[in-house]
Automatic annotation (TrEMBL):
Protein name: Glycosyltransferase
GO cellular component, one term: Golgi membrane
Transmembrane segments: 9-27
Source taxon at top rank: Eukaryota
Family: Belongs to the glycosyltransferase 77 family.
Species: Salix purpurea
Subcellular localization, as worded in the UniProt entry: Golgi apparatus membrane
Swiss-Prot/TrEMBL keywords: Cell wall biogenesis/degradation, Glycosyltransferase, Golgi apparatus, Membrane, Signal-anchor, Transferase, Transmembrane, Transmembrane helix
One example of a Gene Ontology biological process annotation: cell wall organization
Length: 338
């Protein structure tokens, strides 16, 4: 009898110890991670959140008719000695005509953590693009291997946007938005793609216009989704070619015809660039630092453009000349020798 009582005195504290131990395991996920139900649910929710992060970012940035403006940046584009490329890009929305509100529809896609943190600090719509271990955290010189990889990564991402049913304007950040481009773009839904040109031959439907993928508007439909699938599929078979070169080859082949795609080519009078300047400051909508190799040169010459734009706006009432003055893009011209 005494032994039974003794065992009962031993069992009771032992059961209490087991109860406390189980409670500690359940409510201390830091120490016992594998057994914590809270950690399991947190991990599952985090994975679901990542999967739909793009969907949330697009929904927040888009217009009511599911149109969004997209730009891609990395660390090199958000940092600078005095001003960065991103600073200059955003300045153009501030100084442009009817462009400030368009920032609400701008989704900044960040190729590295530094540019993502900068984007978040500026309180823009941001999306962190994962690039499967490839780091795009420095300036990639035009046509270098890493530059080509970055361009293809961009194309793959934009194809995902189309598949989610969003129309979009893609813009490089070396494009100044001096006026709202939407009034200059066709609202005809039968026009699938409207793309900028390095030089314009006078015919907006001519395939002989040399395209530039630094600025274009595309509508989401089964044909454009298929175009991006075919375009992306050519990446590994196009060594040494950037995505623009491959798209141009598809344009001059039979892909666009077979898909029934209608393409409009944008006049450099309105969608200007360093390759072919607009002749009319009263008509210009965007200015692209194309035909330029380095970020430093782009910033120098685009700064001159925006200074000239601000001068024009101050004196617009009495302005007699409709041309940009003294814009020779000298830094860009010299950039090719570096």
């Amino acid at each position: 009898m005494y032994g039974l009582i003794k065992n009962q005195y031993f069992i009771a504290p032992f059961l209490l110890f087991l109860t406390l131990l189980c409670g500690f395991i359940i409510y201390n996920p830091v120490t016992f991670k594998a057994l914590s139900p809270f950690q399991y649910h947190s991990k599952r929710n985090a994975e679901a959140s990542r999967k739909d992060e793009l969907g949330l970012a697009l929904a927040e940035a888009s217009t009511e008719n599911k149109t969004v403006i997209i730009a891609v940046v990395n660390k090199a584009y958000v940092e600078g000695d005095d001003r960065s490329m991103l600073d200059l890009f955003l300045d153009s929305f501030w100084h442009g005509e009817n462009t400030r509100g368009l920032v609400d529809n701008l989704l900044l896609v960040n190729a590295d953590q530094a540019s993502y943190e900068r984007c978040r600090f500026l309180r823009l719509h941001c999306y962190r693009l994962e690039t499967d271990g490839v780091k795009f955290d420095k300036e990639e010189v035009y046509m270098s291997d890493e530059f080509i990889k970055m361009m293809w990564s961009r194309t793959l991402f934009l194809g995902q946007v189309l598949k989610r049913g969003y129309d979009f304007i893609f813009t490089d950040t070396d494009v100044l938005w001096l006026r709202n481009p939407f009034p200059r773009l066709s609202l005809n839904k039968n026009v699938d793609l409207q793309i900028s040109t390095d030089s314009f031959n006078g015919d907006q439907w001519s395939k002989n216009n040399p395209i530039n993928t630094g600025f274009y508007m595309i509508r989401s439909n089964k044909n454009t989704v298929r175009l991006f699938d075919l375009w992306s599929a050519r990446k590994d078979k196009s060594a040494g070619q950037k995505e623009q070169d491959v798209l141009n080859g598809m344009l001059h082949g039979d892909v666009f015809t077979k898909l029934g795609l209608r393409v409009g080519f944008l006049d450099t009078l309105h969608f200007s660039g360093f390759c072919q300047d607009s002749k009319d400051i009263r008509a210009v909508t965007t200015v692209h630092a194309n035909c330029c190799r380095t970020i430093r040169a782009k910033i120098t010459d685009l700064s001159a453009v925006i200074d000239e734009w601000k001068r024009f706006k101050r004196s617009a009432i009495n302005e007699t000349s409709s041309t940009f003055r003294n814009l020779k893009h000298e830094a860009s011209a010299h950039s090719w020798g570096k």
